[in-house]
Amino acid sequence: MISSTSMRTSVARPNILFIDGLPGSGKSTAAEAVGGSLSNSRVFAETAPHHPLLVAAPDQMGAAFADIHKIHSADSFAAAALGRLESFLERAGCDVLYVFESHPIQSTVRVLFQLDAPQTTTLQFWADLQDRLAFAQPRLIYFQESDPLQAFKEINRMRGPAWESYLIEAFEQSPWMQARALSGAEGAGQMFVEYADLVDQLADLWRFPMLKLRARPENYEARTDTLTKWAMAPATSDRQ
Predict the structure, then answer these.
(1) DSSP one-letter code for 53
(2) Which end of the chain has less Cβ packing within 10 Å, N or C?
(3) Tens of pLDDT along 158-213?
């Protein structure tokens, strides 16, 4: 008798590549580079219309989800995010590379962090998410930041006052900042640093193939070349 597990592993699985890291680390550029190198790819930016994995719709400036706390608790958001993932996996084809920018961390765990979810809730969500992804064995390109506070200041400088105001306002509305009575650029910077620490912890708990690269490399072209080659290579169990 053939077990259901054996039957499932004998079926072709969807090919998924996640590209994640802190804001401003170059995720969008990397996703575009991979998509431009592979004709059978489908790229989903974090702000893409009809995104199959997003729980909420991005606004005109981005996907800060400033008012998500008015709609979801941490538990209901986690359940909704897992539900979106399950629905996608049920429909996903096996003849295309799905490239997701800002997933599976930035558009899910970051929202749980904003909602001031207990660490146990976040870790359980991370485990549940990977349980559901196990069949697909997705790969992750992770841009790791060595100095989150400096990165926060740099992205605000590069994107300008409108972006900085948007980000700070979104952070100030979050239950995380309100619970700590924080505000302004200083409070947003503190939130950013603590979030970065959480992201690094979760990346270390990733079970599938992963390529770690510097978030702000000296040579962006060389980084793009490295990640594109890795994305195009046959999937292995390697962690680099």
Answers:
(1) S
(2) N
(3) 999 998 998 999 999 999 999 999 999 999 999 999 999 999 999 999 999 999 99
HSE at residue 139, side-chain half, CA atoms within 13 A, is 23
Q: Looking at the whole model, is its pTM more than 0.85?
A: yes
CA–centroid distance for 197 within its chain: 14
Sign of CA dihedral 33, 35, 38, 39: negative
Beta carbons of 97 and 141 less than 8 angstroms apart: no
**Which residue matches tokens 């980000």?**
167
The contacts found for 191-198 with CB under 8 angstroms, 24 or more apart, are 192/22, 192/148, 192/149, 192/151, 192/152, 193/148, 193/149, 193/152, 194/113, 195/22, 195/110, 195/113, 195/148, 196/22, 196/145, 196/148, 196/151, 197/148, 198/109, 198/113, 198/122
Q: How far is CA 144 from CA 179, 198, 203, 213, in A?
A: 27, 12, 9, 6
DSSP 83: H
Count of CB atoms within 10 A of residue 147's CB?
A: 13
Highest mean pLDDT (candidates 5-9, 91-95, 208-212): 208-212
Cβ-in-10-Å burial (0-12, 13-18, 19+) of 31 comes to: buried
| Contact criterion met (CB below 8 Å) for 189 and 121 | no
Closest by CA to 202, choosing from 103, 93, 69, 100, is 103
80 SS3 class: helix
Residue found by looking up tokens 């969807």 in the block: 14
For 48-116, strand residue ranges (E) read: 97-101
Q: What would the two tokens of residue 74 be? A: 């941490």
